Amino acid sequence: MTEENVGNLPEGTKISDDNGYFNGKNLRYLEKKKLDGYIPDSKQAQEMKNKKLKDNPYSKDKFEYDEKKDCFICPQGEVLPKKGEYSYKGKMQYNYYGANCGKCPVRSKCAGKNKIRIITSDGYEAERRRMKLKMLSDNGKEEYKKRGQWAEWPYGDIKQNLKFREFLTRGVGTVGIEFNLVCISHNMRVMWNKLGGNIDILVKIADLSAESIIKPVNSMIKSCNFFSGAFNN
Predict the structure, then answer these.
(1) Percent of residues, the chain, with pLDDT higher than 70
(2) In angstroms, rounded to a whole number, what is the distance separating the alpha carbons of residues 123 and 86?
């Protein structure tokens, strides 16, 4: 979808999205295209909103993942190799189990009474772990903060201040035009505030914009007249 909207992005392009885009395919896409992505998982997103979460010492993220051996290692040091796979809603899922849970002193807390611990993954575990570590770094946190400055507040301004909460038109083409008009309105408000309401500067900008449009048009008209005259002769 990104390539359809903006075309191919150069390597190293920074991309920041909310946790709704934290899925295996997206993370692998970023790595494959060598794009500099910043996407928090659901837990990190909640922590960023200062929500208090219960810390489970035996949750999946507390299990180390060995990419080379494709296995998990539990907090007690036991290995859970991949032993099964199945399809769920058209997506492959993989089961990891086989640790010596029977003799584990924390079995009831980790797996449950008289049960063994099974970890399920979708085949993108390595990409998920790498992104999580990246988002835990100081640089990752700073980069993601910029999202609020550049990506989030325009939507807030459009919805709250401009009171634009639904489209009045129907159809992809007309809705696109309507949204472009709303964005123009937002950008004009931003320009007005940045320039302190200085009308003279806005007039100069308008003149420059008009000139940049008129020159190419005039050039095209002259070219058309030239070819038309040559044809008539």
Answers:
(1) 84
(2) 12
